[in-house]
Design brief:
This protein is of the alpha/beta class. It is built from nine helices and 13 strands. Helix 2 packs across helix 8.
Length: 271
């Protein structure tokens, strides 16, 4: 009897030992899994979420930043092996935030101007839209020359701000700036601005929501196209360039353009 009881005791101890080993193994796997999640490669994308359909917040459906750039960034992240985290800030502070390391890259319908290229590296352009001027239908402004001696608004630090200074050489008008595009539109509706320079595709969205607004053509309205900004000498620039090229060649870019810009023929994907 004593030997039988001894055998049973040894079996119980062995069973407990095996259970302990299994528990520790599972805990290690769980810890490894959590560690993997915590160490997932992330890139912070800086943007100015006031520029539909590139990037904006549809407050009626939540607080997420959505739009063409947001979708494109997510697709590029999947292709390059990164999780993309989007951070909203004023457009004028995007390049500074990139330089200081607060964000890993900038995607905000931004053109690679010569001044910006002194402080950041850019991918090839991925989308291009020309510039027009938004005015009130009842303002009497029918052509660009009619803006003489009137007030024109632009977003701080934007390509439109640079274009406005060029246009002032041909027609004399007062130039004012605001941080956010919705503020510019509000200034037209309140009568404080006579016109606002913005990209055609952005203007079309505001015209749909404001029946009183229309656009007029402006000279020298071409742009170089939106590109992605990275820190100087970043290895990510070429990596994202390759991913952009792949999306252009396999039709993924066309699908995003059709989704956010209604596939209009007048719009272009930059080569």
């Amino acid at each position: 009897m004593e030997k039988l009881e001894e055998i049973r005791m040894k079996k119980r101890i062995a069973g407990l030992f095996i259970s302990l080993i299994c528990f520790l193994a599972l805990s290690a796997c769980s810890s490894s899994s959590d560690s993997s999640k915590n160490n997932a490669k992330q890139l912070v994308m800086g943007t100015s979420a006031d520029y539909p359909p590139f990037e904006y917040v549809d407050t009626a459906n939540g607080d997420d930043i959505i739009g063409f750039d947001a979708d494109l960034a997510k697709a590029l992240g999947e292709k390059t092996g990164y999780e993309i985290v989007v951070k909203d800030m004023d457009f004028n502070g995007l390049i500074t935030s990139l330089q200081s390391g607060k964000v890993d890259f900038v995607m905000a319908g931004m053109e690679a101007t010569e001044d910006r290229k002194e402080n950041a590296d850019f991918t090839d352009p991925y989308f291009r839209s020309d510039i027009s001027m938004v005015v009130d239908k009842n303002s009497g402004i029918k052509a660009f020359e009619d803006i003489k001696d009137k007030v024109v608004g632009v977003q701080v630090g934007s390509i439109q701000a640079e274009k406005a200074k060029e246009l002032q050489k041909t027609v004399d008008f007062q130039l004012e700036t605001r941080d956010r595009v919705p503020d510019l539109v509000q200034e037209i509706n309140s009568g404080r601005f006579d016109g606002v320079l913005m990209e055609d595709v952005v203007a079309k969205g505001y015209l749909k929501k404001n029946d009183n607004l229309t656009t007029i053509a402006v000279p020298s309205n071409e742009t170089g196209g939106a590109a992605i900004a990275f820190q100087k000498d970043s290895k990510l620039t070429s990596k994202f360039n390759d991913a952009l090229k792949e999306m252009k060649e396999n039709g993924e870019m066309d699908k995003l353009v059709a989704k956010w810009f209604n596939g209009e023929k007048s719009l272009e994907i930059a080569d």
